[in-house]
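PT: before anyone asks, these are the final sequences, not the draft ones from last week. 611 residues across everything. Please model them as a single complex and drop the result in this thread when it's through.
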Amino acid sequence: MKNGFRQSMAWLHTWTGLLLGWLLFAIFVTGTSSYFQEEITAWMTPEVRSIPADAPTSFAAATRWLEREAPGASEWSVSSAGKRAAGLQLYWVNGPDAPADAPTDARLDGAGRKADARETRGGDFLYRFHYNLHYINWYWARWIVGIAAMAMLVAIFSGIVTHKKIIADFFLLRLGKGQRSWLDAHNVSSVLFLPFILMITYTGLVSLATHYMPWGIAANYADEQKFFDTTFPWPAPAEKAGPAPLTAVAPLVERAERTWGAGAGSVRILNPGDRTAQVIVSTAPDANMSVRPRSLTFDGVTGKLVSAHNPSGAATATEGTMIGLHAGRFASSVLRTLYFLSGLAGCIMVASGLILWTVKRRAKLADPDRPHFGFRLVEKLNIGAIAGLPFAMAIYFLANRLLPVEGAGRSDREIAAFFIAWGAVFVWAAARPSARAWVEALAAVAMSFALVPVVNAFTTDRSLVTSLIAGDWVFAGFDTAMLVIAAGFGWAASKVLRRSASPRTTSGKRPARSPSAEAA
Amino acid sequence: MIHFLLLVLATAGFGLLCLSRERHQRDLIGRKLPTRTGHYARWSGLAILAIALLLAGSRLGWGAGTLEWLGLASVGAVLTMAVLSRRSMQR
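LR: through. Structure below.
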């Protein structure tokens, strides 16, 4: 019975892992990159020089800018993604006498000047892709991602059951032994990082729980929006009552930060310049482990505290903390690096699992030179997913530097470049013999990542050398990371090349060795 | 500094755990350890990991500290695995 159980778990592990592995790989890679979302955005908008300023000063400067540029607005909103963000994001709602095409958003640098940055979605695109996908309706995308995450949980638990010797093989990685090595790599990357991998999958599902399980809300609220209004209040501006000068914003932000002992991340001003004005200051996304912000509401004329909002209740706190754990916005630079490395291990786990499927079956093929259709399909999809997505990311970064800076729809063209590059790898994999397609695709990934710092040096004045001299660690770090990733893929390509160049071994095993490192 | 210390502790802890296993002893140090020494290695390895957790919790706060301990433990285990893998290739 026990053997039967383990065998059925192995079957479950193999097929859930294979069917959703390609999508899971894409989710893991883009999700892992999102731990450096702010840094990616900063790199992709080289025009914005982040000048460190404390929150009260920069929020006050942004308010002065809005007073000048959007005086009749019924609402101003200034937000910062936290300490690592390059600049502030501004939104406003124009009053009735503003022209219909008047702008409603802007980005400012830390000194309160408008940043004329190129139009790009930056790291936000990769972040949103990891749960909303792209080009398809986000509602269905989240269901697809949710099914993949559920499959991941199933694969984790069935994998633990299948793995007979977790403790005995804990440290075991035998290299250069074909299938055995792939299995070791798959085991080690999942077992040593199991706490992270379990946490990230489970909390990922929790973060979209109301999407997957709306019945709790449906049973208690007639209208879903009412639930969100009650749980996460979002006051609307009142009827205007007559002009009155807006109180200074900086002291309010200072007071809020003192009250919380944490940084402020956004300031919303309702009816600025009116007697009914209100100033709502909220905590920064990186101020707490929980993602649910606290906020203080002040009278916009007198500056008196009107009300305080703290997300209350054990359930809200648990949910907010779980999502916080997933996103890691609160993380210090060391913890952020650990999050990133753990995410990388997750990528390796998925990739090695996918490759293992083919390695295991290659030995049993009747005619290794003419594998059956299913085997070939998996091989091609593996190449398209494992080499294709990193290639698409490199092309996305290159497109950011090479597309003309001016022009409408620029950010959409960057994203189009991402998907065209990704699709091209699938087409290439389908057209070429698999062993060669692996080498060529991995080499292309290595070259495109290596090109990123080069192109950056020619198209901006913030090259790797300049950044190193200036002590600009975001830019220097990004360029260095590109080179390290390029080296990883270059190493993988040379491994596969040597493997496929060597004469066939008697066992008939000729596994295409591929990216065991740096899959992000 | 504390982060580096935690990484050293995590690696040492997992290194000792690895050394306590009979099948790895020949690869790691070239000879078999007496059973008792193996036991000492195991318990001191576990103790070092526990000390690292206490240190991380008390210095970095229990929330972030536990997370960082988990992350660094994984890195320490990977380093141990890498040394073992290299050693066994050389033999």
